[in-house]
Amino acid sequence: PLRGLGSEMASSITVPKLPGYNTEDPTTRRTTHTKTLGFFQGQRYVRPSLEDGDMQGMNTQKSVGVLNTQETWPAAAHMKIPMEASTEDFTPSYVALDGKVLRFDAYLKEDVPESPAEGFRIRKFTLYYFLVDDSIRVSEQRQENSGLAQGTFLKRHRVPRTTAGSGAVVTGSGFLSWSDFNVGQNVIIYGRPMLIVDCDAFTREFLTAKGVEMAPSLDIPNDPYFVRRKAAEEKVPLKVFDDRRQRFLQYNRKVLRFYVQWDDRERLYGERRPFVLHFYLEDDTVEVCEVHLPNDGRDQFPKLLRRQKLPLDSRSGLQDIGSAPKKHYTDADFHVGDKVNVFGRVFLIYDCDDFTKHHYATKYGLTHFPNLTDRIKTPMVDIPQREVPPPTGFGSDEDSLGSIYNLVPKQPKRDEAKLMEFAGKTLRFLARFESPRAKEDVDRKFIVAFWLADDTVSVFEPPLSNSGIIGGKFLERCEQINVDTGERFTFLDFVVGETITVNSFEFRVIDCDKFTQTYIDSKGQVIRSQLYSTSLVDIMKNLQKRYEEAKEQLRSAFHVMDQDHSGNITHEEFIQSLQQLHFDIVLEEAEALLWWFDPDFKGYISYAEFCDAVVRSDKFPQFLLNWERKKRAGTLSGRNSRNSAALSSPKPPP
Mean of the pLDDT values across residues 496-522? Predict the structure, then answer.
């Protein structure tokens, strides 16, 4: 009958506590599990295990939080519990104390009843107290030759408070906390009393801030057993062992290099030969490397002696079969100026490298290293000079020298640029005999030609009627040596009025042509247009020849001349195209040629006018004569006549 009543009415009715009487609503779900964690401002915290009445009284407080002081909880739980009405920032203790550790130095005086050599021993420890969870880790400091498994003495965990002694008993008063640690205070860890003697700066500041009065640092007493053993070790000299691993780590890839020489001239066909001796510091081994000189006639063997230990007395070591030599060479046995016996061959050390000098100066204090390089040098012998035999008369001098300098003669290299530039260009001189041998030779005249392309000379004799001497080629084109200079002829050696000797004939130069005189006066610096100057008649003949041989090529040439692709070519384009065809002609000199291709002189040339002018090129010489006559008379006229200053016309109409 009570099920339909509300909760308030049910609580006000007094019902006896008898079986069958129940005021609770069975339809409601019961959650009897207590919550130990809570969230506030995004942080987790531990709820206190308090009674409901106490909790209600706590919530009525107006402070930011209440300190959880339950002693059995770790330090991370000793924090302020946030209140619902709090507006200040809240940071849990496990976040604030994360990574903060108190460090203490301590020692343990441990009895040793089973050893007569020591009554007790001093063991040194380092204590680490982790504030975040009140856990402790103990690490024992390592001591050399202690005979104990030192290192981690106690793994990290919460240590309960116990009594001292071998039969330690847990006191039941909780776990060790930071308040149990202080300098000069004993900390009992599982029955072992450890005296704290020092702590680090952070630990001292933390405890001072908590109101703990810190004592000054203490000294750890010396262990009598270690003191006696150290004194005994200082009195007895330790045996030095040959530690190969230590030598390898210290001297690996460190090699002493000595320059030595083997003098074997006392024997038949003996000689002095240079070698390089390497001494390896890591294992006192020696190797002797050969030094190969150019054209020494020896096989390319790299080493005379492979790497091995070198005995001091190699003869006794070789005679005693089955017994190895007892003494070997060390770095102290090598000095510049001394001799080294390598299995019967005596080598003189005459020099060493910089690293070797530094090694001896550091280890042995040697700073003087005599340089014996000049002493072991072999006197230099003058290299015999190669004599060039006189020319045989066959071929040029380059051909003869090619068979001297090379076993298989090579073709002499020519100056291709010079050949292309001066191809077919000659300097012509008129000459006669300087000392005629007969009366018939007095009136003989010769044309001496100097070819600029390859500096060759040829002599031609013009036929003279009723002289009785057949004219023609007097000297084939060939290279000639000037007897005065001993070198080949150059164009500067030919001077009008002077004598020259060509092929044992002495000629006097009496005249030259205009081009030769111009070229010599400019000392070879004549401009290219003077060298390649071509008459207008020759240009028309060349164009007519090209037209007859290949009309399509000439049509293509016209399209190439038409740079702007207008179907017509201007006067400037026409002159530039002739220059590309190796006709050196300027605009001022081509006025007659432009009148021939452009009768109306309108400033441009069509393709029909171009072909018509090329076909009628046989009439160009007569046109040229008439044009020069009209120009002198001033009667030149055209539909749009222009003077030579107005040859550069604008673009032709499309």
Answer: 89
Q: Give the HSE-up count for residue 312: Cα atoms under 13 Å, Cβ half-sphere.
A: 9
- Tell which residue, 253, 286, 255, 291, has the closest CA to residue 271: 291
Question: pLDDT, tens digit, for every residue of 373-426?
Answer: 777 776 667 777 878 887 776 777 777 788 888 888 888 887 877 887 787 788
Name the pTM for this structure: 0.34
**Locus of tokens 């976040």:** 95
Please state whether 565 falls in left (phi above 0), alpha (psi between -120 and 50) or beta: left
Q: How far apart are CA 221 and CA 108, in angstroms?
A: 10
Tallying the residues shown for the chain, one arrives at 654
- How many CA atoms lie within 13 Å of 146's alpha carbon, on the beta-carbon side? 16
Stretch 240-257: mean pLDDT, rounded?
86
DSSP string across 350-363: EEE-HHHHHHHHHH
Burial of 143 (0-12, 13-18, 19+ CB in 10 A): middle
| Position 57 pLDDT exceeds 70 | no
Q: Terminus-to-terminus CA distance in the chain, angstroms?
A: 123
Q: Which two tokens stand for residue 62?
A: 């107006």
Query: Is residue 345 within 8 Å of 357, Cβ to Cβ?
Result: no
pLDDT in tens, 18-42: 766 666 666 666 666 666 667 665 6
**Which two tokens mark 272?**
């002095």
Is the distance from CB of 342 to CB of 288 less than 8 angstroms? yes
Amino acid at 301: F
Please compute Rg for the chain using Cα positions: 60
Query: Locate tokens 């190699």: which residue?
Result: 314
Report d(CA 132, CA 136) in Å as an integer.
11
- Residue 516 parent element (H or E): helix 514-521
And the tokens for 73? 């909880």
Q: What is the pLDDT of residue 399?
A: 78
Helix (H, G, I), strand (E, B) or coil at 22: coil
- What token pair was written down for 422? 């001066």
Residues 6+ apart with CB under 8 A from 49: 34, 36, 70
Which amino acid, 105? Answer: D
